[in-house]
Amino acid sequence: xxxxxxxxxxxxxxxxxxxxxxxxxxxxxxxxxxxxxxxxxxxxxxxxxxxxxxxxxxxxxxxxxxxxxxxxxxxxxxxxxxxxxxxxxxxxxxxxxxxxxxxxxxxxxxxxxxxxxxxxxxxxxxxxxxxxxxxxxxxxxxxxxxxxxxxxxxxxxxxxxxxxxxxxxxxxxxxxxxxxxxxxxxxxxxxxxxxxxxxxxxxxxxxxxxxxxxxxxxxxxxxxxxxxxxxxxxxxxxxxxxxxxxxxxxxxxxxxxxxxxxxxxxxxxxxxxxxxxxxxxxxxxxxxxxxxxxxxxxxxxxxxxxxxxxxxxxxxxxxxxxxxxxxxxxxxxxxxxxxxxxxxxxxxxxxxxxxxxxxxxxxxxxxxxxxxxxxxxxxxxxxxxxxxxxxxxxxxxxxxxxxxxxxxxxxxxxxxxxxxxxxxxxxxxxxxxxxxxxxxxxxxxxxxxxxxxxxxxxxxxxxxxxxxxxxxxxxxxxxxxxxxxxxxxxxxxxxxxxxxxxxxxxxxxxxxxxxxxxxxxxxxxxxxxxxxx
Length: 533
Fold this sequence. Notes:
There is one protein chain. The chain folds into three domains: 4-69, 2-Layer Sandwich (Gyrase A, domain 2); 80-231 and 277-342, HUPs (Rossmann fold), CATH 3.40.50; 349-524, Isoleucyl-tRNA Synthetase, Domain 1 (Orthogonal Bundle). It is 55% helix and 11% strand. The protein has helices spanning 12-15, 19-30, 52-66, 99-114, 130-142, 145-151, 153-169, 172-185, 189-213, 230-239, 273-288, 302-314, 348-366, 372-392, 404-407, 415-435, 447-457, 459-469, 473-492, 501-524, and strands spanning 4-7, 37-42, 45-50, 80-84, 118-122, 243-246, 249-252, 262-265, 292-298, 323-328, 331-333, 336-337, 400-402. α10 crosses α11 and α17 (447-457) packs antiparallel against α19.
């Protein structure tokens, strides 16, 4: 009954009138005003219909003029956002479970940049902690340098899994690991040298994966970076009267806030995650003077963040309310929960390679004219993009079971479908340029065109909601709406072979608008655009 509806029920109590009467009164006051829409009253609703002149004229002209900047904003100008995401634990595998933090975090970075914020992407590497004690024990008992060097990250994973298998029958191994970590914290040179080597082996794999995903970070300051910055915060906790000793461990009692105690130091004096996170937050506030500091981690860590966020607030830091935790649901394969300790993981490098190979096979059938380097580049972009799109399609808080078959479907609501739609707009653009056809904004002549332009008009508000809600899936689902409307327009309306020149140029303009908006939307969810498939 219209393109936009204003329900007038909410005004009824304040105005002491029936909603239909309120809607009619508003309509009478704006009917005569010149604008971009007409309005009508239906019950308690005031319905607006956006005019064809606005859609085909002002809106279309604005999109073509701004190009891929359309939908963006300078709302964040002069403000800084720090985003802590990806952050794998070094010496453990980079598996599909890490994909959530990595692509949600990077998409949020791109979305905030599109809204004018200065963004600092931090990869808070898990390069400190008890897992290194476990790796050192495992390496000395069952590893050798030549084998681990040759196998790289896979060799480290095998040792990590074996440690936990052996520890089930011999719990003393856990004590040995804690001893080795404590030695690291005390500066043991041999243990620190092994840790450094483990990190180097891990980064060989991480670099390859980040390049495939097209992700770069502004800082790789991991947990170890803050080892000399924690004492100051522990002392401040003491000065504030917040630190208490419980069974030898130093804690902050949070029972008043309905939470378990926040552990700051173990009984042997070793630090824990909250200690390092507090020191990191203080450093970032001093270094970047952030307006927001966003942490993208699994929902299972929500209590951890609630605890140390509260501790920071109790310490009196004025920026405590600028800390934001963005949780996401768990991913499984065939319903099986991922677990590094048991070896039940799918390595991200294997997943991406499989996706690229499968896409290459599909392209060979669908477009045999593509070959060599061009085919390889397109296969990688579409394969990696398919995995990212599949992950970012659902609300981030929902648990998901990853399906390669669903992700790579060219005909469903998938990344390949969206990327193929974009490639189609690029093909039309190339043909128009070759034939010397220029776009022209004008009259909307079909319902398919009208619907397409209405969907294009929503892009800015979708981006704003995605930024406000920290929810990239809103952009992903918008992409599917836009692709559906464009493909309906493509099939039902002649474009470059339209009956008259004006219609041809108008529909070219609409296609170029889709090209700009769809291209930007894909980049906002970390997908590399391809002009051919």
